[in-house]
Design a protein that fits this description.
The chain is of the alpha/beta class and 224 residues long. It is 25% helix and 29% strand. It is built from 6 helices and 11 strands. The mean pLDDT is 97. Bound molecules: S-adenosylmethionine. The site of S-adenosylmethionine has 18 residues, from helix 2 and strand 5.
Length: 224
């Protein structure tokens, strides 16, 4: 996908009542159509954030997209008193008319104001969203991005390997490995063999976990 290419994106409902988005250029959904909230909680919060006992951490998300993962991390920060520096990179920001129309599940509807704040925040600077949550949205191309921060946790939420193999390249994982503190974790919905191999060759210990509803497996990689 080239930067000049206009992305045709639309809102679609998912099985748990939460919206997701669909990129018509690539024919890719942003989350599982079985349930976007259910999948994000399973892969990124339960298998990711809650697997670390840190009270202060830096999270990197590959693909800000709808902002749902960022909102779930913010809610964890609020409800569990965790300090989070949340870095997230996006090449194709979602238009305002889509994020304002995004349906959240009843469980987190009370946090809608924060969802809007995450989207309205300026790009390419630290923005204090709550006392404990700092957001830094990077407008850029992950395949070219040079990571300078030390990180503890990665939400690896790129489109599929079949559509964007360059997003899952071994050298991307090597860069993460270099910048990651020991004990750090990469978590992703994807479980393709080539992705696991690229993570292993980059130095990670890779484990396959049960996937969110509708998907057999997901992957978690740890820097030992
Ligand atoms: C699976 S969706 C991410 C879903 C997102 N985490 C969420 O919670 O909605 C993949 C995202 O990666 C973005 N993306 C695609 N190519 C990219 C690139 N080269 N660099 C950065 N982001 C990219 C897409 O625009 C899309 O938002």
């Amino acid at each position: 996908m080239e930067r000049q290419e206009v992305q045709k994106i639309k809102l679609v409902p998912t099985g748990d009542g939460t919206s997701t988005l669909f990129n018509q250029n690539l024919g890719e959904h942003y989350h599982s159509v079985r349930g976007s909230y259910t999948e994000s909680m399973h892969v990124y919060i339960n298998a990711g954030l809650r697997s670390l006992s840190l009270k202060q951490l830096t999270v990197l998300e590959v693909g800000f997209g709808s902002g749902l993962n960022a909102l779930l991390a913010l809610i964890e920060s609020l409800t569990r008193g965790i300090k989070i520096h949340y870095l997230t990179i996006e090449k194709y920001p979602v238009p305002q008319e889509l994020w304002t129309g995004f349906s959240l599940p009843a469980e987190i509807e009370q946090y809608r104001e924060y969802f809007l704040t995450l989207h309205s925040a300026p790009w390419d600077e630290d923005v204090q969203i709550t006392g404990d949550f700092v957001l830094h949205k990077i407008l850029g191309d992950w395949t070219q991005y040079e990571l300078k921060h030390s990180i503890d946790l990665v939400f690896y939420d790129a489109f599929s390997y079949d559509k964007q193999p360059e997003m899952w390249a071994q050298e991307r994982f090597e860069m993460i490995y270099r910048q990651m503190r020991p004990g750090g974790v990469v978590t992703t919905y994807a479980a393709k063999g080539v992705i696991k191999n690229n993570l292993r060759h980059a130095g990670f210990s890779v484990e396959r976990l049960p996937g969110a509803p509708g998907k057999r497996h997901m992957v978690r990689a740890i820097k030992k």
